[in-house]
Design goal:
Blueprint (H helix, E strand, L loop, with lengths): L2 H16 L5 H6 L4 E2 L9 E3 L1 H9 L3 H13 L4 E7 L3 E6 L1 H14 L13 E5 L11 H19 L3 E8 L4 H17 L18 H11 L8 H26 L6 E4 L7 H11 L1 H5 L3 H7 L7 H11 L3 E5 L15 E5 L10 E2 L9 H14 L4 E7 L6 H12 L4 E7 L2 E5 L2 E2 L12 H8 L1 H9 L7 E4 H5 L6 H22 L21 H11 L1 H11 L3 H23 L11 H25 L9
Parallel strand pairs: 5-6, 5-11, 6-7, 11-12, 13-15
Antiparallel strand pairs: 1-2, 2-4, 3-4, 8-9, 9-10, 13-14
Helix pairs in contact: 1-4, 3-4, 5-20, 5-23, 6-21, 7-8, 7-9, 13-14, 14-15, 16-17, 19-22, 19-23, 20-22, 20-23, 21-22, 22-23
The protein binds one RNA strand of 77 nucleotides through helix 3, helix 7, helix 19, helix 21 and helix 22.
RNA sequence: GUGCCCGUAGCUCAGCUGGAUAGAGCACAAGCCUUCUAAGCUUGGGGUCGCAGGUUCGAAUCCUGCCGGGCACGCCA
């Protein structure tokens, strides 16, 4: 149950009933909220209803509050109502209400916190989308974890979520990759290749790709025509790199529902099916070609052409000449007429080119088609997770989505800021040129997936993040990963111990009987329930804001409250969870901490962190 | 030069989409504990929410202009 929704609906009904001449629409538009006040002296719940309705109702806030208070005071579970400050109505709920809430939390079990606000809306979350030219490095990790947790969060909130990976398997970098692999192929055939030439990918991870091709085909590619050979090398390389990337991601327990190939956007249906039949390329990279064409309306055209036609039909394509970019010296800038998209009509700074001087489509043109495909596949909400260096790309992409979908679909782009790796307080220097970059795999192998995931989520996505190797593995209160895990493990430990003290009791049914929870009297016990009561709302607001970090902070706070109660048991043994002299009190407290355990586990599940049962 | 993000306690950061006297951890200070409910506890000091205007019952939050830091900015992907 969501106590906020419960009381909010009651208050809305009361407003409709008590305040004369107020329309439902006015109430809906008022911005009326129900919140937990920061200061506990202001009660358990507080509403601004009287203040925001004062104007449409034509009265003074405190007068309106006086009008509403008597009815609210009669709600079941309300202990007292006060009018305070400029017109807040503060509700204090009875201990009995909180204990009943705990009972409901336990009955709902693992489902508790799930919400229906998503209403089955189809959401496409695109994240990682690292270029398939090598293993994942630590820079990709934050976006990967963020996107994955956001997907879980939105699922919990009732959205129908698809996790998607966009494979940038077209363009110049793939040609370079193909050349690099061809070199490794020759090397595998016994040729001395010496230094890897400037501009090619030097990484060792391409060596096995070359060897695999030799094993399969022998030397036959040495004599093949350049076009065919390059395409073959590219395909083999991308397939191998995607396998590598998927394996890296699996170490962080990240699995996408779908992979989308940029290359297919450049292909007609016939051509794409031929590639699949001859080379198994699309299935090799994980792209479901049949599912794509099922949603694609015109298989004889390329997807890019189709998207551009759509824009053209709306008068959003024209030929024009762009100003040279400002700030930097123009160097080899040459003005020329080119095909442009009217991005400025949708909030972008300049109109954007769709074709290169070579006649090929730009990357942006393909990206337009990609987002159009998402829309065609029925996604009305799209979320892209980008790295900090792609911030400049936000406006044009949202502009394209607005233009293509006529405002029927929304795109939210989440930017993940940089991660600074620290070892012994010193920043770990990375540079691509020297090949000295830390891979995702290295980090996960060193500190484990749980620590990586939690730390990456324990910060707002648009704030830079320090990742300190020493800190994330430290066993102390200062390490939030440990602190939260430890709370869960402590509860597990109590649940193990209680079976020895009261072996005959049925703990599976803890606290479900009438009055069984009455022994919960201590204010800290009740405030633990209060905190858990806000869990469903936390899920909803975090999901609506696309901010999984809120879940991490919430679970840290809940763990902190639990540890606080535990610590009081050190000084006062009467407050311990297991009282060998009192079965009833033990039963109620076990019920309480079982709920805490469950909510912690639910939160960790969203974050993708394993709730451990004991600390080692 | 333009756009985006950030600016909150000495440090690292939250702040529930506009609510009441702005919070937490670290660090600092004082006191407690030497235990198996181990991987510490309690209390306290500490703030011009970058600056200046504006919007309204009410602003850290929204708008404008500055200041400071980061990231981008051409047919790359």
């Amino acid at each position: 149950m969501n106590i906020f929704r419960y009381f909010d609906e009651k208050i809305t009904a009361t407003c409709q009933e008590i305040i004369p001449g107020l329309t439902d629409a006015q109430i809906a538009a008022s911005g009326k909220t129900l919140e937990v006040p920061r200061d506990p002296a202001h009660g358990d719940l507080s509403t601004n209803a009287a203040m925001v309705l004062a104007r449409p109702a034509g009265g003074k806030p405190r007068e309106i509050a006086e009008l509403l208070a008597p009815t609210i005071r009669e709600y079941e579970g309300v202990e007292s109502v006060e009018i305070a400050g400029p017109g807040f109505i503060n509700l204090r709920l009875t201990p009995g209400f909180w204990r009943r809430t705990l009972g409901e939390i336990l009955r709902e079990g693992a489902r508790y916190g799930a919400s229906a606000i998503g209403a089955g809306t189809k959401v496409n979350i695109e994240y990682v989308s690292a270029n398939p030219t090598g293993p994942m490095h630590v820079g990709h990790t934050r976006g990967a974890v963020f996107g994955d947790a956001l997907a879980s969060l939105m699922r919990k909130a009732g959205f129908e979520v698809t996790r998607e990976y966009y494979i940038n398997d077209a363009g110049a970098q793939i040609k370079i990759l193909a050349e690099s692999v061809f070199l490794r192929y020759r090397e595998a055939l016994g040729e001395k290749i010496g230094e890897i030439p400037e501009g090619l990918y030097p990484g060792d991870y391409l060596i096995p790709v070359g060897e695999a091709i030799v094993k399969k085909d022998g030397g036959k590619w040495l004599s093949a025509s350049e076009d065919i050979r390059a395409q073959y090398m590219a395909n083999a390389a991308v397939m191998a790199m995607m396998a590598l990337i998927k394996d890296d991601l699996a170490r962080l327990n990240i699995r996408h529902d779908g992979f989308f190939s940029e290359r297919i956007l450049h292909s007609s249906s016939q051509n794409a099916h031929r590639i699949e039949q001859e080379e198994g390329y699309f299935s090799g990279v994980g792209f479901d070609i049949d599912a794509y064409y099922a949603a694609h309306t015109d298989p004889d055209k390329t997807a890019i052409q189709e998207a551009v036609d759509t824009l053209e039909a709306r008068g959003l394509i024209y030929t024009g000449v762009l100003e040279p970019p400002k700030g930097k010296p123009p160097e080899d800038w040459e003005p020329r007429p080119q095909m442009l998209f009217r991005a400025t009509q949708f909030g972008d700074d300049v109109d954007r080119p769709l074709k290169k001087s070579t006649g090929e489509w730009t990357y942006f043109a393909a990206d337009i088609a990609y987002h159009y495909s998402k829309f065609q596949r029925g996604f009305s909400q799209m979320i892209d997770v980008f790295g900090a260096d792609h911030g400049g790309y936000v406006k044009r992409t949202t502009a394209a989505v607005a233009a293509l979908t006529d405002g029927k679909a929304s795109l939210d782009i989440k930017i993940c800021q940089l991660v600074r790796l620290l070892r012994d307080g010193e920043q770990v220097k990375m540079s691509k040129r020297s090949g000295n970059f830390v891979t995702l795999r290295e980090v996960v192998d060193e500190v484990g997936p749980d620590a990586v995931r939690f730390m990456m989520l324990f910060r707002k996505n648009d704030a830079p993040l320090d990742f300190d190797f020493a800190k994330v593995t430290e066993q102390s209160k200062d390490n939030p990963v440990f602190y939260v895990q430890y709370a869960h493990a402590r509860i597990c430990s109590v649940l193990r111990n209680v079976q020895e003290v009261f072996p005959e009791m049925d703990w599976a049914a803890t606290g479900r009987g009438e009055g069984a929870l009455d022994p919960l009297q201590d204010p800290d016990e009740l405030s633990l329930i209060r905190m858990m009561a806000s869990w469903p709302r936390m899920v909803e607001s975090a999901a609506a804001a696309h901010e999984p970090h809120r879940i991490a902070f919430f679970v840290h706070e809940l763990a902190s409250a639990f540890h606080g109660l535990w610590n009081r048991g050190n000084d006062n043994p009467q407050l311990r969870f297991i009282l060998s002299g009192s079965k009833d009190v033990t039963l109620a407290r076990i019920a309480l901490i079982r709920a805490v355990q469950m909510v912690i586990a639910s939160a960790l599940e969203i974050l993708g962190v394993e709730p451990v049962e004991e600390m080692r």
